[in-house]
Design goal:
By secondary structure, the chain is mainly α. The chain is built from two helices and no strands. The longest helix is centred in the first third of the chain and has 22 residues. It starts with a helix and ends with a helix.
Length: 47
């Protein structure tokens, strides 16, 4: 992937996270981080 594509993806992700922090008090970000932690624990269990 080129640098331009990475920059666009990073910018979109950053805008989404900042929008969530401003509009919803980070509810969506916290939910996704909790689910990611559950996934990591599940994968570590099966290792």
């Amino acid at each position: 992937m080129s640098h331009k594509a990475w920059f666009i993806l990073f910018s979109i992700l950053l805008v989404l996270v900042i929008g969530d922090v401003i509009l919803r008090d980070s509810q969506n970000v916290l939910f996704l981080l909790k689910k990611l932690l559950d996934l990591v624990e599940y994968i570590a269990f099966w290792r």
